[in-house]
Protein backbone atom coordinates (compact mmCIF):
# COMPACT_ATOMS: atom_id res chain seq x y z
CA UNK A 1 0.00 0.00 0.00
CA UNK A 2 1.51 3.34 -1.05
CA UNK A 3 0.77 6.80 0.33
CA UNK A 4 1.55 9.98 -1.55
CA UNK A 5 4.64 10.48 0.58
CA UNK A 6 5.54 7.15 2.21
CA UNK A 7 4.99 3.42 1.93
CA UNK A 8 2.88 1.34 4.29
CA UNK A 9 3.66 -2.33 4.79
CA UNK A 10 1.05 -4.22 6.77
CA UNK A 11 2.52 -6.32 9.56
CA UNK A 12 -0.56 -8.18 10.79
CA UNK A 13 -3.79 -9.08 9.06
CA UNK A 14 -5.97 -7.03 11.41
CA UNK A 15 -3.56 -4.64 13.10
CA UNK A 16 -0.22 -2.97 12.56
CA UNK A 17 1.69 -1.40 9.70
CA UNK A 18 5.33 -0.49 9.17
CA UNK A 19 5.91 3.00 7.80
CA UNK A 20 8.71 3.23 5.24
CA UNK A 21 10.31 6.38 3.92
CA UNK A 22 9.66 8.76 6.83
CA UNK A 23 12.58 10.20 8.82
CA UNK A 24 11.14 11.20 12.19
CA UNK A 25 14.23 13.25 13.05
CA UNK A 26 13.12 15.81 10.45
CA UNK A 27 10.32 18.35 10.63
CA UNK A 28 7.10 16.80 9.28
CA UNK A 29 4.60 18.98 7.46
CA UNK A 30 0.92 19.06 8.33
CA UNK A 31 -0.12 17.04 5.26
CA UNK A 32 2.24 14.22 6.19
CA UNK A 33 1.06 14.25 9.80
CA UNK A 34 -2.54 14.02 8.58
CA UNK A 35 -1.62 10.98 6.47
CA UNK A 36 0.10 9.34 9.42
CA UNK A 37 -2.93 9.99 11.61
CA UNK A 38 -5.18 8.42 8.97
CA UNK A 39 -2.86 5.40 8.87
CA UNK A 40 -2.99 5.21 12.67
CA UNK A 41 -6.79 5.18 12.65
CA UNK A 42 -6.81 2.39 10.07
CA UNK A 43 -3.99 0.19 11.39
CA UNK A 44 -4.10 1.08 15.14
CA UNK A 45 -0.31 0.71 15.52
CA UNK A 46 2.46 2.13 13.34
CA UNK A 47 6.05 0.88 13.38
CA UNK A 48 9.11 2.91 12.38
CA UNK A 49 12.44 1.09 12.00
CA UNK A 50 15.94 2.45 12.71
CA UNK A 51 15.02 6.06 13.45
CA UNK A 52 17.92 6.85 15.81
CA UNK A 53 16.04 9.58 17.67
CA UNK A 54 16.88 11.34 20.90
CA UNK A 55 14.42 12.32 23.63
CA UNK A 56 13.74 15.73 22.09
CA UNK A 57 12.94 14.14 18.72
CA UNK A 58 10.50 11.70 20.31
CA UNK A 59 8.75 14.48 22.23
CA UNK A 60 8.50 16.63 19.12
CA UNK A 61 7.03 13.75 17.10
CA UNK A 62 4.49 12.78 19.75
CA UNK A 63 3.39 16.41 20.10
CA UNK A 64 2.31 16.41 16.44
CA UNK A 65 -0.68 14.31 17.51
CA UNK A 66 -1.82 16.48 20.41
CA UNK A 67 -0.92 17.84 23.81
CA UNK A 68 1.30 15.60 25.91
CA UNK A 69 0.72 14.11 29.31
CA UNK A 70 3.42 14.01 31.93
CA UNK A 71 5.21 10.68 32.21
CA UNK A 72 2.71 8.97 34.53
CA UNK A 73 0.25 9.84 37.32
CA UNK A 74 2.53 8.32 40.00
CA UNK A 75 5.74 6.92 38.47
CA UNK A 76 8.63 9.42 38.13
CA UNK A 77 9.81 10.60 34.74
CA UNK A 78 13.29 10.56 33.28
CA UNK A 79 15.33 13.19 35.10
CA UNK A 80 14.65 16.68 33.70
CA UNK A 81 12.26 15.19 31.13
CA UNK A 82 8.74 15.42 32.65
CA UNK A 83 7.04 13.91 29.56
CA UNK A 84 9.19 10.77 29.33
CA UNK A 85 8.47 7.57 31.25
CA UNK A 86 11.43 5.17 31.48
CA UNK A 87 10.34 1.59 30.79
CA UNK A 88 13.38 -0.09 32.26
CA UNK A 89 13.61 -3.74 33.29
CA UNK A 90 16.35 -2.91 35.80
CA UNK A 91 13.94 -0.70 37.75
CA UNK A 92 11.37 -3.47 38.03
CA UNK A 93 9.15 -2.34 35.13
CA UNK A 94 7.93 -5.48 33.39
CA UNK A 95 4.37 -4.90 32.19
CA UNK A 96 3.73 -8.53 31.30
CA UNK A 97 -0.06 -8.34 31.26
CA UNK A 98 -2.49 -7.09 28.66
CA UNK A 99 -3.56 -3.51 29.34
CA UNK A 100 -4.49 -0.15 27.89
CA UNK A 101 -2.39 2.65 29.34
CA UNK A 102 -3.64 4.55 32.40
CA UNK A 103 -7.32 3.62 32.14
CA UNK A 104 -7.62 4.04 35.90
CA UNK A 105 -8.02 7.83 35.43
CA UNK A 106 -11.05 9.46 33.83
CA UNK A 107 -9.08 10.87 30.88
CA UNK A 108 -6.75 8.13 29.60
CA UNK A 109 -4.16 8.84 26.88
CA UNK A 110 -5.05 9.15 23.21
CA UNK A 111 -1.85 7.55 21.94
CA UNK A 112 1.59 6.48 23.06
CA UNK A 113 5.02 6.38 21.48
CA UNK A 114 7.58 3.80 22.56
CA UNK A 115 11.23 4.14 21.52
CA UNK A 116 13.82 1.42 22.04
CA UNK A 117 17.15 2.25 23.65
CA UNK A 118 18.39 -1.14 24.85
CA UNK A 119 16.89 -4.42 23.63
CA UNK A 120 17.73 -7.97 24.72
CA UNK A 121 19.16 -10.40 22.15
CA UNK A 122 16.04 -12.54 22.53
CA UNK A 123 12.55 -11.97 23.85
CA UNK A 124 11.35 -8.57 25.00
CA UNK A 125 8.90 -8.11 22.11
CA UNK A 126 5.80 -5.93 22.33
CA UNK A 127 2.38 -7.34 21.42
CA UNK A 128 -0.52 -5.05 20.49
CA UNK A 129 -4.17 -6.06 20.10
CA UNK A 130 -6.99 -4.51 18.07
CA UNK A 131 -9.98 -4.13 20.42
CA UNK A 132 -12.30 -3.08 17.58
CA UNK A 133 -11.68 -6.38 15.81
CA UNK A 134 -12.31 -8.13 19.12
CA UNK A 135 -15.66 -6.36 19.45
CA UNK A 136 -16.65 -7.34 15.90
CA UNK A 137 -15.78 -10.96 16.70
CA UNK A 138 -18.27 -11.13 19.57
CA UNK A 139 -21.47 -13.06 18.96
CA UNK A 140 -24.37 -10.65 18.53
CA UNK A 141 -25.92 -11.45 21.90
CA UNK A 142 -22.60 -10.86 23.67
CA UNK A 143 -22.06 -7.59 21.78
CA UNK A 144 -25.48 -6.38 22.88
CA UNK A 145 -24.64 -7.24 26.49
CA UNK A 146 -21.20 -5.60 26.31
CA UNK A 147 -22.75 -2.40 24.91
CA UNK A 148 -24.63 -1.94 28.20
CA UNK A 149 -21.83 -2.80 30.63
CA UNK A 150 -19.58 -0.51 32.66
CA UNK A 151 -16.32 -1.58 34.29
CA UNK A 152 -14.42 -0.04 37.19
CA UNK A 153 -10.71 0.38 36.49
CA UNK A 154 -8.12 0.90 39.23
CA UNK A 155 -4.34 1.20 39.55
CA UNK A 156 -4.56 -0.72 42.85
CA UNK A 157 -5.35 -4.02 41.17
CA UNK A 158 -4.67 -7.50 42.49
CA UNK A 159 -1.33 -8.90 41.39
CA UNK A 160 -1.11 -12.57 40.53
CA UNK A 161 2.28 -13.01 42.19
CA UNK A 162 4.54 -11.09 44.60
CA UNK A 163 7.33 -8.92 43.15
CA UNK A 164 10.49 -10.84 42.41
CA UNK A 165 12.97 -8.10 43.36
CA UNK A 166 13.14 -5.15 45.72
CA UNK A 167 13.18 -2.84 42.69
CA UNK A 168 9.90 -4.37 41.50
CA UNK A 169 8.41 -4.05 44.98
CA UNK A 170 9.39 -0.39 45.17
CA UNK A 171 7.93 0.26 41.71
CA UNK A 172 4.66 -1.31 42.85
CA UNK A 173 4.59 0.87 45.98
CA UNK A 174 5.09 3.99 43.90
CA UNK A 175 2.54 2.90 41.31
CA UNK A 176 -0.25 2.64 43.89
CA UNK A 177 0.90 5.55 46.10
CA UNK A 178 -2.21 7.45 44.98
CA UNK A 179 -5.31 5.43 44.23
CA UNK A 180 -7.81 5.99 41.42
CA UNK A 181 -10.98 4.13 40.52
CA UNK A 182 -12.86 5.09 37.37
CA UNK A 183 -15.98 3.71 35.69
CA UNK A 184 -15.59 3.34 31.92
CA UNK A 185 -17.95 1.86 29.34
CA UNK A 186 -16.92 -1.68 28.42
CA UNK A 187 -17.55 -0.66 24.80
CA UNK A 188 -15.98 2.66 23.90
CA UNK A 189 -16.91 4.64 20.79
CA UNK A 190 -13.74 5.96 19.14
CA UNK A 191 -13.96 9.77 18.97
CA UNK A 192 -12.41 10.01 15.47
CA UNK A 193 -13.35 6.85 13.59
CA UNK A 194 -16.63 6.04 15.34
CA UNK A 195 -15.55 2.40 15.71
CA UNK A 196 -16.62 0.46 18.77
CA UNK A 197 -13.93 -1.33 20.75
CA UNK A 198 -13.70 -3.31 23.99
CA UNK A 199 -12.29 -0.94 26.59
CA UNK A 200 -11.12 -3.32 29.31
CA UNK A 201 -7.65 -4.78 29.99
CA UNK A 202 -5.57 -5.29 33.11
CA UNK A 203 -6.83 -2.30 35.07
CA UNK A 204 -10.50 -3.33 34.71
CA UNK A 205 -11.30 -4.87 38.07
CA UNK A 206 -15.04 -5.40 38.06
CA UNK A 207 -18.32 -4.94 36.22
CA UNK A 208 -20.81 -2.60 37.83
CA UNK A 209 -23.84 -4.50 39.12
CA UNK A 210 -22.12 -7.90 39.12
CA UNK A 211 -20.38 -9.81 41.88
CA UNK A 212 -16.61 -10.24 41.98
CA UNK A 213 -16.77 -13.77 40.60
CA UNK A 214 -19.32 -12.85 37.91
CA UNK A 215 -17.19 -9.85 36.91
CA UNK A 216 -14.06 -11.95 36.71
CA UNK A 217 -15.72 -14.57 34.52
CA UNK A 218 -17.30 -12.06 32.15
CA UNK A 219 -14.14 -9.96 31.80
CA UNK A 220 -12.19 -13.15 31.09
CA UNK A 221 -14.60 -14.07 28.28
CA UNK A 222 -14.45 -10.60 26.72
CA UNK A 223 -10.68 -10.38 27.10
CA UNK A 224 -10.26 -13.72 25.32
CA UNK A 225 -11.57 -12.07 22.14
CA UNK A 226 -9.05 -9.23 22.46
CA UNK A 227 -6.09 -11.59 22.70
CA UNK A 228 -7.05 -13.95 19.89
CA UNK A 229 -3.90 -14.36 17.78
CA UNK A 230 -5.60 -12.98 14.66
CA UNK A 231 -6.35 -9.74 16.53
CA UNK A 232 -2.76 -9.16 17.64
CA UNK A 233 0.58 -8.18 16.18
CA UNK A 234 4.06 -8.84 17.63
CA UNK A 235 6.93 -6.41 17.16
CA UNK A 236 10.53 -7.58 17.55
CA UNK A 237 12.54 -4.58 18.68
CA UNK A 238 15.83 -3.35 17.29
CA UNK A 239 17.67 -0.35 18.75
CA UNK A 240 16.26 2.88 17.36
CA UNK A 241 12.76 1.59 16.58
CA UNK A 242 9.68 3.62 17.46
CA UNK A 243 6.05 2.49 17.82
CA UNK A 244 3.02 4.79 17.75
CA UNK A 245 -0.21 3.13 18.89
CA UNK A 246 -3.77 4.33 19.41
CA UNK A 247 -4.44 3.81 23.12
CA UNK A 248 -8.18 4.32 22.64
CA UNK A 249 -8.69 1.12 20.67
CA UNK A 250 -5.76 -1.19 21.49
CA UNK A 251 -4.22 -3.16 24.31
CA UNK A 252 -0.56 -4.09 24.58
CA UNK A 253 1.63 -6.58 26.40
CA UNK A 254 5.37 -7.04 26.93
CA UNK A 255 6.14 -10.69 27.76
CA UNK A 256 8.68 -11.20 30.54
CA UNK A 257 10.69 -13.71 28.50
CA UNK A 258 14.20 -12.24 28.43
CA UNK A 259 15.59 -13.51 31.75
CA UNK A 260 17.68 -10.89 33.59
CA UNK A 261 18.82 -9.13 30.43
CA UNK A 262 18.44 -5.35 30.20
CA UNK A 263 15.55 -3.86 28.24
CA UNK A 264 14.96 -0.10 28.16
CA UNK A 265 12.38 1.95 26.27
CA UNK A 266 11.21 5.55 26.59
CA UNK A 267 7.50 6.31 26.45
CA UNK A 268 5.92 9.64 25.52
CA UNK A 269 2.14 9.86 25.69
CA UNK A 270 -0.43 12.04 23.94
CA UNK A 271 -3.30 13.31 26.11
CA UNK A 272 -6.76 11.95 25.37
CA UNK A 273 -10.39 12.78 25.99
CA UNK A 274 -12.96 11.18 28.27
CA UNK A 275 -14.25 7.85 26.90
CA UNK A 276 -17.89 7.72 25.79
CA UNK A 277 -20.08 4.65 25.61
CA UNK A 278 -22.60 3.50 23.04
CA UNK A 279 -25.35 5.42 24.84
CA UNK A 280 -23.35 8.66 24.81
CA UNK A 281 -22.56 8.66 28.52
CA UNK A 282 -18.99 9.66 29.47
CA UNK A 283 -16.75 7.89 31.97
CA UNK A 284 -16.93 9.05 35.57
CA UNK A 285 -14.58 9.13 38.54
CA UNK A 286 -15.38 6.77 41.41
CA UNK A 287 -12.37 7.48 43.63
CA UNK A 288 -9.53 9.95 43.27
CA UNK A 289 -9.10 13.32 41.59
CA UNK A 290 -9.08 14.26 37.91
CA UNK A 291 -5.30 13.70 37.64
CA UNK A 292 -4.79 17.26 36.38
CA UNK A 293 -1.07 16.95 37.19
CA UNK A 294 -0.90 14.15 34.61
CA UNK A 295 -3.07 15.20 31.69
CA UNK A 296 -3.90 18.70 30.43
CA UNK A 297 -7.31 17.43 29.31
CA UNK A 298 -8.43 16.43 32.81
CA UNK A 299 -11.99 17.53 33.44
CA UNK A 300 -12.91 17.50 29.76
CA UNK A 301 -16.20 15.96 28.75
Automatic annotation (TrEMBL):
<keyword id="KW-0408">Iron</keyword>
<dbReference type="InterPro" id="IPR042098">
    <property type="entry name" value="TauD-like_sf"/>
</dbReference>
<keyword id="KW-0479">Metal-binding</keyword>
<keyword id="KW-0223">Dioxygenase</keyword>
<keyword id="KW-0560">Oxidoreductase</keyword>
<protein>
    <submittedName>
        <fullName>TauD/TfdA family dioxygenase</fullName>
    </submittedName>
</protein>
<dbReference type="InterPro" id="IPR051323">
    <property type="entry name" value="AtsK-like"/>
</dbReference>
<dbReference type="InterPro" id="IPR003819">
    <property type="entry name" value="TauD/TfdA-like"/>
</dbReference>
<comment type="similarity">
    <text>Belongs to the TfdA dioxygenase family.</text>
</comment>
<dbReference type="GO" id="GO:0051213">
    <property type="term" value="F:dioxygenase activity"/>
</dbReference>
<dbReference type="Pfam" id="PF02668">
    <property type="entry name" value="TauD"/>
</dbReference>
<feature type="compositionally biased region" description="Basic and acidic residues">
    <location>
        <begin position="281"/>
        <end position="292"/>
    </location>
</feature>
<feature type="region of interest" description="Disordered">
    <location>
        <begin position="276"/>
        <end position="301"/>
    </location>
</feature>
<feature type="domain" description="TauD/TfdA-like">
    <location>
        <begin position="8"/>
        <end position="269"/>
    </location>
</feature>
Amino acid sequence: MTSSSFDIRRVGGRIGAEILGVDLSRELDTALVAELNAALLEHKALFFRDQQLDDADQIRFARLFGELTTAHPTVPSVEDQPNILPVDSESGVRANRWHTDVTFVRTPPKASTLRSLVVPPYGGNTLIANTAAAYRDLPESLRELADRLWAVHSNAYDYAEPPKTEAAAEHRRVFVSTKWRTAHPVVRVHPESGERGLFIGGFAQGIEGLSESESRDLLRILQSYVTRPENTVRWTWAPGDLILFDNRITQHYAPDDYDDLPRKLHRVTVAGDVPVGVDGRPSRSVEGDEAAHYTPLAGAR
